[in-house]
User: Fold 7-carboxy-7-deazaguanine synthase from Caldithrix abyssi DSM 13497.
Amino acid sequence: MAGKDVLKINEIFYSIQGESTYAGLPCVFVRLTYCNLRCTYCDTEYAFYEGQEMGLDEIIARIKTYQCNLVEITGGEPLIQPAVYPLMERLLDNGFEVLLETGGHMDVSKVDQRVKRIMDVKCPSSGEAEKTHWPNMELLKNDDQVKFVIGDRKDFDYALEVLEKYNLLNRCPVLFSPVFGRLENGQLAEWILATQKPIRMQLQLHKYIWKPDQRGV
Ligand SMILES: C[S@@+](CC[C@H](N)C(=O)[O-])C[C@H]1O[C@@H](n2cnc3c(N)ncnc32)[C@H](O)[C@@H]1O
Ligand SMILES: Nc1nc2[nH]cc(C(=O)O)c2c(=O)[nH]1
Ligand code: SF4
Ligand SMILES: [Mg+2]
Assistant:
């Protein structure tokens, strides 16, 4: 695995943010290689191993070419490679707004407080729900976001239980997103409306703008 100032990078691209409360905004994406989960629905399996090593200076120089202040670090699972921490800190020190998309199974306590953490809590149909690192829930601040990707009614009920147990609706924005192609958008909408809770429904915007399997968008 890459060293202290080096990261294995799957792709860096500039696109419309398709997820989170930042959806719709131009954003630079840095997708890190490797993941230690295997979600049944994963749309980014190409990031499990593929990538090229890049130094932090080179990554930051590339990000700067897009002249966009919003940067999202994703993957794969971005918290696996230790050099992600100095990357985030250097981006923040350079004035970038930094979003981190993480799977909820990795300890987020060492992430710089200035980073907006978008934490995905894995539901049963992902096959990875038992890997969740529950102490993370207590760390969520109001500029973080928690997200549940829902594949069926069992996932939905599970997500509601987690919301209650950790009082998440009072901690930060809560997003529910359908597993693309597996759960009907309208079905999820009806379930959310019936709860009468301020749960934000989320579609992956980029999959409607471009072809759903297109890379680099
Ligand atoms: C590819 S993951 C990378 C970051 C991290 N590994 C994680 O899972 O949060 C980015 C986001 O895409 C979501 N995602 C992956 N495949 C999806 C699919 N088929 N439908 C909806 N969301 C999906 C994940 O649940 C996660 O929220
Ligand atoms: N446009 C676009 N927005 C995204 N938001 C989160 C993404 C991800 O893969 O983590 C993603 C992505 O892959 N593309
Ligand atoms: S944690 Fe994220 S990248 Fe890893 S398998 Fe699950 S959805 Fe894919
Ligand atoms: Mg994606």
Remarks:
- Residues 6-209 form a domain with the TIM Barrel fold (CATH 3.20.20.70).
- The pocket of magnesium ion (ligand 4) is lined by residues 43-44 (CB under 6 Å).
- DSSP finds five helices and nine strands in the chain.
